[in-house]
Amino acid sequence: MAVNPNSDELRKWTRKIDALRGSLEDYNLFASQFSNESMHISQIKVRLDEVAEFSEKFEDYQAQVEMLEEKKDSDWVYIRRTFRNRLCDVKAALLRIVDEHAANADHVSSPSMSSLASQQPGGTFNSIRYPPCVLPTFNGDWQQWSSFIDTFNSMFHNDNSNMPLVQRFHYLKSCLSGQASDVIKSIPTTAEHYQHAYDLLVNRYENKSAIIQSHIRSLLDTPKVVTPSSSELQKLHHHISSNINALKSLQQPVNQWDAWLVTLLCSRMDSTTVGEWYLQYKSKELPSYDAVEQFLASRITAYEAGDINCQSHEVRKVPNRSSNSKVHDKKALFVKSKEKGGGKCPLCSEQHKLYACSQFNSMNIPERRNVVIKSKLCFNCLSFGHQVSSCFFPPCPRCGERHNSKLHESPTNASNTLDPTANDDDRPQPHLTVMYTQLGTPVAENLNVLLATAIFNICDNFGRMHSCRAVLDSGSQLSFITKSCAKRLNLSMTTNAFNIVGVSAMASVAKQLQDTILCSRFGDFKTNIKFYSLQTIVSALPSQLLSCDNLKMPDNILNQLADPNFHIPGPIDVLLGADIFFDIFYGDKFPLSDLAVLNRTKLGWIVTGKISTMSPSNTLPNLKIHDQSALSFFASKTNQRILEELKAEEHFKSSFSRHCSGRFIVKLPMAQDPKVLGDSLDMAQKRFLNLERRLIKDKPLAEQYDKFISEYISLGHMELASPISDKPTYSLPHHPVFKSDSTTTKMRVVFDGSATTKSGLSLNHIMLKGPKVQPDIFNILLRFRLHPVALTADVEKMYRQILVAEEDCELQRIVYRSQPDEPLRHYKLKTVTYSTKSASFLATRCLHELGAPIKTTPIGRIIHQDFYVDDLISGGGTDQECFDIHKQVHSILGTAGFPLRKWCSSSLTILNELPHTQKDPNFMVNLTETEVLSALGLRWQPSIDSFRFTTKNWTPPTHMTKRTLLSDINSVYDPLGLVSTVLIKGKIFIQQVWSLKQGWDDPLSEDLRSKWTKFYLSLVGLNDIILPRLALSPESDSYEIHGFCDASQHAYGACIYIRSIKPGGNAEVRLYAAKSRVAPIKTTTIPRLELCGALLLSDWFALLRVTALVRRFLSNCKAKFSKKELVVGFISMEEINNARTYWISRSQSESFPSELSSLRAGRLVHRGS
């Protein structure tokens, strides 16, 4: 839409810019005519101050002009550049005059010049102009006195007859500060008082005894080095040596002080450096101070060399002492102190750890805590030698707090009737559901005191509103907010910190944040509020799922609840204290039951009182989480998400239907009533008008955009809507996105379901996300590598093939017009819209529903497990099997209006048999022998059935930062880790850059730039790598899975190979999958890193899952010939356990072959085995 500028407004801002330009020219003329005789330097300084404000004023004025007048961006850039260049020229001319004036002043009054002139023979002075000397300073520190008075005497006091006494007095006062200036502060600054002041200062500080004692006290107060580094050791060395040298200059017998100087120096060095000193010092005689000082100096040099290597990211190779021995880091000798007790249990004195003590395990929780306190053990790992604050072991897996799981006091302990003499591993454990209800408890009604909660909007630092959930507490003097929520709001933190004391005198520290605005979702209530940040306020509220069956909730109040999900456990972002608590109550009440009541507030109606918890009969028994499981740690955090997923699943089952054409009709799963949404039309119109200005400037984009919208209308996916509706509506902003590698649609329109309305909520805020119903990309690609013949396809416009119920289409409105002179039209989208929160779930759930009736068949397994959203990545054992898959899957999906296209295969036979008479030109993918296809992001070349890797056309950016490094390394997509050995080098480099503590957009040094450039340009070699897609050899009759793991000081990793054994005995080995990780920045031992690699190998998603997957595939291959039922569905725990048994059996057969053969033959195993 063309903008009609207001001519009067435009002229006003243009005149202001012209006035700025005129002032600049006047200042430039003044600078060119400036004369020291007739003008003063202050006139220049006044103009400099005004010029400094010109830049900001110009930016403000120019921004107003650009909003009122249409020009090309290049024109505006030229205008801005011209003004800035002229501004810099004028400012430089004014600064040049100031610098010349300062240079002339220095030439006249520099003390160094006059003092040097007086020392020349005959009073003559060398014509060379020396730079001015910096005046010495003295603040009363005894250790600085000697150097200060010598410097002052040489510059001003001794034989300087050319400098007046009053000028010397001025210099003397300007050199003094602190206590020293107080000595002569009251003396008048006159020539006759200079000598008196000088003598007073000398008499006060010329005290050799006090100076010596000051240096000795400084030595005794030397700070201790905690962490060995070049900077810390350099500070220690400088502090000691400077005081020693000063004492030597004061004629003290420092050479006779070796005993206490060596003791002092060793006590101030860190334990690692002291240990290395005693390792290299072989004599038992008392070492001299000079020997220890020389050792410390050499250590500093060594550390500095290491720091330089670290900064340049060059890996320093340490030569081996022998060919068969490893060189270990010497830090390992002294970093870990020996534990007290020699490995004995502090309770029973047996040779075992405390957590393995049967006497300790038989105690209850309070008794165990007393034992730990009396034995002075770490509460987190139950070990000697450190406290919880310095413990590197992970926290309790049940609650996340910093204590051992043996000391975890569950809230259900009081009601559990367990055998107190049983060990933790043997006693029966209580089971908790995700909704915090105990299974197996009586069906009696349990009452829960409900704390009042509310949802409202808080203004962030940029003026945008964010929805937050709060608990209302009149017992708190302040209002608090979690640090995560404060970070989301971008609220800055002040320097004020407060000690917060709670129940049982539990204390914590809270920091004050900047003031912000709190707005109600109902009405016009808003207020300024001051928050204090805490790490956490409280766990999920309420603590249990509450039953609302007995509550008599009025219909007119239901949509005005301050927290519509008050009965569902959820996270708390804010605590509103007494400073606002009593200001929000109106005083109106409405009884819900005998024990619960509604209270009307300015934030909406809040529920308080006692409400019964959900009975076990209403919970889902298949959602049990064992109390000892690591998942129990996440139960409170994932509780809301799991409940939302269950609700979305139930909503889909109860609301979906099929159109007469077979297409699915779904309803949008809503977490809240759409009435809570505010007005969104104004926001959508503003966003469209901004988009329209862009389309006016870019005609090709405008044509593509209009073509896309027209296709939307012609296919019946969108229709005109009335501007006025009696139902809740939501207008979606939209914008174009580009996908250059797409073979069908290069540009598509994306709708923004997260745009907030005037209430601070968006459509995505009140929608349910739904669970994930399809496997991960990793698992689909693993199966893809097992099929002898590959087959891929794509569902055309998958989301738009699913209809949305008519009543929900009002929540999917847009505004659009093809020409700026047309009126804005309102449309409503009739299909599932991508970029909405539930779109992915609804689309994949419909696909899953299609395969449900045949889920036990091979086709059902393909529909359930070989689709990732709309991409089919599958295959079969033969060409005929793949052709049958094509026909059946195409037929089944066609009944629901899911047309499959972009068919491709590794077999030319299948491509030739596929029908070529389809109207859709994209029904098949016609590739040349060298072209590749994207298979879930991997570059697959069907002609040779292999994976390829490509790197982007890369040139070193002029501004290389951490952000660009991450973008570069992530541009190579490798979900299976097939080239992880190459990419891990780049990740190690990025980790080293991270250790420099640079900002995200701070430019890297030239050395780092060159190293990254060399690494990334070497990735061009990946273009030549060809990896076969098929991991199994078709001619083989048996297969073996081999897993390897290893670690270095920089990284660790694991990989899995499949070994195919052919009938002749020859074997073929192919890499199946791999993973690698960068080692932690904190230095650790190689054995620990090797354990990390072993853990990575044995991970659920690696060895056991892959083994179960391959074993199932081979079993299904045999079942096809014997016509047995195939195993389909997700990997079960039984298959995982069978895979674990397989590896245990394999390890035993390789490690104990003779023992196993003896047992099979019925013979006794030798005792020494």
From TrEMBL:
Transmembrane segments: none annotated. Residues 404-430 are annotated as: Disordered. Signal peptide: none annotated. Residues 410-420 have a biased composition (Polar residues). Pfam families: DUF1759, Peptidase_A17. GO terms for biological process: DNA biosynthetic process. PANTHER family: PHD-TYPE DOMAIN-CONTAINING PROTEIN, RIBONUCLEASE H. This is Uncharacterized protein. InterPro entries: DNA/RNA_pol_sf, DUF1759, Peptidase_aspartic_dom_sf, Retrotrans_Pao, Rev_trsase/Diguanyl_cyclase.
